[in-house]
Amino acid sequence: MAISSSIPHRVSASPPVVQAALFPFLDLKTQFARIKNEVLAEVERVLDSQYLILGPEVEALEAEVARIAGSEFAIGCASGSDALLLALLALGVHAGDEVITTPFTFVATAGSIARLQAQPVFVDIDPETYDLDIDQLESAITARTKAIIPVHLFGLPAEMKSILAMADANGLAVIEDAAQSIAARYQDKRVGSIGNIGCFSFFPSKNLGGAGDGGMLTTSDPELADRLKVLRVHGSREKYHYERLGINSRLDALQAAILRVKLRHLADWTAARQRNAERYRNMFAELGLDSHLQLPAQPRDRVHVYNQFVIRTPQRDALSHYLRAAGVPTEIYYPSPLHLQPAFAYLGYKEADFPQAELASQEVLALPIFPELTEDQQFAVANAIASFHGIAPS
Ligand SMILES: *Cc1c(COP(=O)(O)O)cnc(C)c1O
Fold first, then answer.
1. Which atom of ligand 1 is nearest to the CA of 108?
2. Is 65 in the pocket of ligand 1 (CB under 6 A)?
3. Going by CA atoms, what residue is nearest to atom 5 of ligand 1?
4. Nearest to 220, CA basis, from 337, 72, 69
5. Which of 106, 109, 206, 251 for mutating ligand 1's site (highest number of atoms within 8 Å of CB)?
6. Helix (H, G, I), strand (E, B) or coil at 383
7. Does ligand 1 lie within 6 Å of residue 70's CB atom?
8. CATH classification of 32-263 is 2.120.10.70, yes or no?
9. Do 32-263 and 265-388 have matching folds?
10. Which pairing describes strands 197-201 and 173-177: parallel, antiparallel, or unpaired?
11. Would you say the C-alpha torsion 195, 201, 206, 209 has a positive or negative sign?
12. Is the pTM higher than 0.70?
């Protein structure tokens, strides 16, 4: 591997010998070991009951998530991707409608729109928050626009006040993609309770991750809640009577039981992620790295829950190669914006259409931020970044 050739020549430190990662990017095993007994007891209880799909366990989780999101209702489903699809179905989005969202997100955000043969309309991002650029939103609204899907990316809530104002003025629905941001706050509200519907994911790498796939919708509109409950079970309220065309997207009782155990730890885990983010900020400041790196934005009216701690630098590729060689695990979210993906080529977008999303894809780098990360591990990360920049480790 040509490590040395990818390092800028002004770096004085010699490239480290390639080694295995010092620790995982996300250490789910350590987390599981600490709650294993609690989880196994719940799994046994659910298996003994043989109530396996929806039912009391799912209802209990729904009530708990509704409370965390500050919404009246929560409706469990099979994944965060399905939550987005169900939200669009419940709002009556169909073929030919337009839905505005960001190209700098996980594929499911726009995929759910396209799946209904509606049209994803992308708007470029703000280079600091990576969320929808409010100044460009209005010009994307047309007579066919039905909804906006802001994404609370990496755990930072989007600028919801402006989005809601624009939605209200134009009669549009707002679906929050809160997959990465459970318990994050915007002003006095939790994400999931700000738009018409909130969508959550329990994919294992999310802040509240299950033992497999799972998702949840939140809303305070009783009619939408009712519609979502019918839509997730084939459009049926009464057995073998189908009042609308739905899908099969239910949450398993086992997942719900495991998620309820983990939910008891969510506040602590979120606080640990926030503490880790602060530690990085302090370490980087001490090492004089702040002038070399763009750190995650933290607007004063929002509480970031750090599903990812994403730094930004024009030297991203060289830095990530250097860190890999030093045994420091990193990830790139996302290496290519959605408007340039083959699956969305039919939309007709081209390179340079969304310059901020494209540049972000080339410059972002996610550092380990999981709750169990130790201070020593963070020092290893910070010192490796410092030595890449020719700064002596502290
Ligand atoms: C994870 C994620 C989803 C999809 O959730 P799944 O449960 O994996 O289907 C949707 N949007 C965003 C922004 C995500 O991060």
1. 10
2. no
3. 80
4. 72
5. 106
6. helix
7. no
8. no
9. no
10. parallel
11. positive
12. yes
pLDDT of residue 177: 98
Q: Is 154 in the pocket of ligand 1 (CB under 6 A)?
A: no
Boundaries of every domain in the chain: 32-263, 265-388
Does residue 177's CB lie within 6 angstroms of at least one atom of ligand 1? yes
For residue 18, CA distances in Å to 22, 322, 323 come to 11, 9, 9
SS3 assignment, position 235: coil
Residue 11 confidence (pLDDT): 47
Q: What pLDDT shows up at residue 3?
A: 36
Closest-lying ligand 1 atom to the alpha carbon of residue 307: 15
How close is the Cα of 216 to the center of ligand 1, in Å?
Answer: 11
Ligand 1 center to residue 204 CA distance, Å? 10
Question: Is the shortest distance between the CB of 80 and ligand 1 below 6 Å?
Answer: yes
191 sits in the region (left: phi over 0; alpha: psi -120 to 50; else beta) called: beta
* pLDDT at res. 290: 87
Q: Could you tell me the distance, in angstroms and rounded to a whole number, from the CA of residue 371 to the centre of ligand 1?
A: 20
pLDDT tens digits along 111-152: 999 999 999 999 999 999 999 999 999 999 999 999 999 999
Q: Residue 80 corresponds to which tokens in the numbers above?
A: 């965060």
CATH of domain 265-388: 3.90.1150.10
Q: What angle, rounded to 10 degrees, do the helices at 56-69 and 253-286 form?
A: 30
Would you state the pLDDT for residue 393? 72
**pLDDT for the residue 345:** 97
Pocket test for ligand 1, best of 26, 65, 81, 85 (most atoms within 8 A of CB): 81
What letter does residue 352 receive in the DSSP assignment? T
Looking at 171-214, list the stretches that DSSP marks H as alpha helix, in order from N- to C-terminal side: none
Q: Which residues of the chain are under the pLDDT cut of 70?
A: 1-18, 394
Chain-centroid distance of CA 159 in Å reads: 16
pLDDT reported for residue 5: 39
Pocket lining: 252 vs ligand 1, CB cutoff 6 Å = no
Pick from 189, 160, 205, 201: nearest CA to 307: 205
26 contacts 207 by C-beta, under 8 angstroms: no
Query: Is the C-beta atom of 112 inside 6 A of ligand 1?
Result: no
pLDDT of 392: 82
